[in-house]
Write a structure and sequence with these properties.
Number of strands: 0
Mean pLDDT: 90
Order of helices and strands: HHHHH
Radius of gyration: 15 Å
Shape: globular
Distance between the termini: 30 Å
């Protein structure tokens, strides 16, 4: 039987994640969008979101929900596993 080590996160670490994860997701969206050669306006149209909202995602100012992230991944034609190829254990 396999056992997995579970780590309890401190309040401090949770607060750090609330800041760092949206920024990393935003960086990822921007990187993948630019790799595809499309503008914020075009991507926002593809996912049915306002361009300013997409700008806020890319700047890490808002935390998109899983449906929005999924729509972005579909629009960028990448699997979610590739979208979430980010490091959070820093």
């Amino acid at each position: 039987m396999d056992f997995y080590l579970m780590v309890q996160l401190s309040d401090k670490r949770l607060e750090e994640l609330k800041t760092s994860v949206p920024k990393k997701i935003g960086d990822r969206v921007k990187t993948l969008r630019k790799k595809k050669g499309i503008t914020q306006t075009h991507l926002s149209e593809l996912v049915g979101k306002d361009r300013q909202y997409l700008y806020k995602i890319e700047k890490g100012k808002v935390t998109p929900n899983v449906v929005t992230i999924s729509a972005i991944a579909i629009a960028l034609e990448i699997p979610l596993s590739e979208f979430f190829d980010i490091e959070i254990n820093e």
